[in-house]
């Protein structure tokens, strides 16, 4: 469906869920793919799954925690050393650990904010630092401060927010982290556009991924039934979100920047 021949993608949270689906779709579309995750077992399984679908794909697996600055910078450097100059960065790493506001849980708050918000920020910054340095060096060789935007290599960052960013009961930390990602995305889109880096985020509704497996199976599927009836098109699949991400990275999305796209299953007022 897509043509990513000659492109290189770096995907956090790439061992499962939406991140894995994006990695799979890009690999079968001829992109070289680096997937980063902190779960070594799932990383190995994801590697085999993608390799089976795209036997000739150029792949790199990186075990690491996006919450750690040194780890994130090392992962970005390794991807660019092993695969080449990265074109697409997809921030899909995230956790869901809910609590009610009246029962504040500091551990859950810190873990959620550090993983979802700080992790996304660190990954964007690690690659932005490298890309901006390269751009400035190229401009200096020409004796100018900045090159014309379209003379820079085009690149794309896509961050994973959520419809929960609009607020959802029991998701104080998760909603805060996902709302913060929207703000960071728009900030990055304004800062990096002069270097021909386009930055977007997608806001999925409930998507059937391992992260929400417990929610969908608890109480004899009560919550699964609730959301199936609440979302007009039903609970989504990772492919529904991956299609949008791949479009944003494709030539069809080149004239777009700073877009916040709800993948909402037909429901326009949050989860």
The major β-sheet equals: 7 strands, parallel
Helix content: 40-55%
What are the low-pLDDT stretches, counting only 5+ consecutive residues below 50?
none
The CATH architecture would be 3-Layer(aba) Sandwich
Q: Which geometry do the CA atoms define? A: globular
Determine and state the CATH class: Alpha Beta
How is the CATH topology named? Rossmann fold
Number of continuous helical runs: 8
Say how many strands there are. 7
Radius of gyration: 18 Å
What structural class results from the helix and strand content? alpha/beta
| Terminal CA distance | 30 Å
Q: How would you state the average pLDDT, rounded?
A: 96
**By CATH's scheme, which homologous superfamily applies?**
NAD(P)-binding Rossmann-like Domain
Strand order of the largest sheet: 3-2-1-4-5-6-7
The portion of residues forming beta strands comes to 5-15%
* SSE pattern: EHEHEHEHEHEHHHE
**Count of domain modules:** 1
Question: What is the structure about, briefly put?
Answer:
This protein is an alpha/beta fold and 271 residues long. It has eight helices and seven strands, in the order E-H-E-H-E-H-E-H-E-H-E-H-H-H-E.
Please provide a written account of the structure.
There is one protein chain. The protein has 271 residues and is α/β, with parallel strands linked by helices. It has one domain (8-263): 3-Layer(aba) Sandwich (Rossmann fold), CATH 3.40.50. Helix content is 46%, strand content 14%. It has a seven-stranded parallel sheet with strand order 3-2-1-4-5-6-7, sandwiched between helices. The longest helix has 37 residues, at 106-142. The protein is globular and about 65 Å long. It starts with 7 loop residues before the first strand and ends in an 8-residue tail after the last strand. The mean pLDDT is 96.
């Amino acid at each position: 469906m897509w043509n990513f021949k000659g492109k290189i993608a770096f995907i956090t949270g790439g061992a499962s869920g939406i991140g894995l689906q994006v990695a799979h779709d890009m690999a079968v579309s001829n992109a070289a793919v680096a997937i980063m995750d902190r779960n070594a077992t799932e990383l190995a399984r994801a590697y085999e799954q993608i390799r089976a679908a795209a036997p000739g794909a150029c792949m790199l697996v990186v075990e690491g925690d996006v919450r750690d600055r040194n780890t994130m910078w090392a992962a970005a450097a390794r991807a660019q050393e092993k695969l080449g100059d990265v074109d697409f960065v997809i921030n899909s790493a995230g956790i869901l650990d809910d609590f009610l506001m009246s029962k504040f849980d500091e551990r859950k708050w810190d873990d959620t904010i550090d993983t979802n918000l700080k992790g996304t920020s660190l990954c964007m910054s690690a690659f932005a630092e490298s890309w901006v340095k390269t751009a400035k060096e190229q401009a200096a060789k020409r004796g100018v401060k900045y090159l014309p935007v379209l003379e820079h290599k085009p690149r794309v960052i896509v961050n994973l927010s959520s419809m929960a960013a609009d607020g959802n009961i029991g998701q104080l930390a998760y909603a805060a982290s996902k709302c913060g990602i929207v703000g960071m995305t728009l900030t990055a889109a304004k800062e990096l556009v002069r270097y021909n880096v386009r930055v977007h985020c997608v806001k999925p509704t409930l998507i059937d991924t391992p992260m929400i497996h417990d929610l969908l199976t608890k109480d004899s599927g009560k919550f699964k039934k609730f959301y199936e009836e609440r979302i007009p098109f039903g609970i989504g699949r990772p492919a529904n979100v991956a299609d949008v991400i791949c479009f944003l990275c494709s030539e069809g999305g080149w004239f777009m920047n700073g877009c916040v796209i709800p993948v909402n299953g037909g429901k326009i007022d949050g989860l």
